[in-house]
Model the fold of this input.
Amino acid sequence: DVQLVESGGGLVQPGGSLTLSCVASGFAFNTNAMYWVRQAPGKEPERVSTITNGGATYYTDSVRGRFTISRDNAKNTLYLQMNSLRTEDTGVYFCATQWTGTNYRYSGQGTQVTVS
Done:
């Protein structure tokens, strides 16, 4: 079975930093693009960042320059380094994979990030 398990969330003051991790299993991690998606209270999910199987990275405008996505294929682990956190970064952060065009075939349970 595919499993994506996030960790690293928490409560942080504005301007602080957190690093999220996502351990993947049950599929070929190294051949799949991976995503970090967040959902703020009362809002639709938002793709925050993408890393392709080749290591190319993409960010939504609001986090570019503050967040860094990375992956360790040897450890089947995805990371999101978040710096200069803002209150509007608050939400549940999910890692996901296999975007179908309308949804992600697999996603984790999420980890809560609260900036306050």
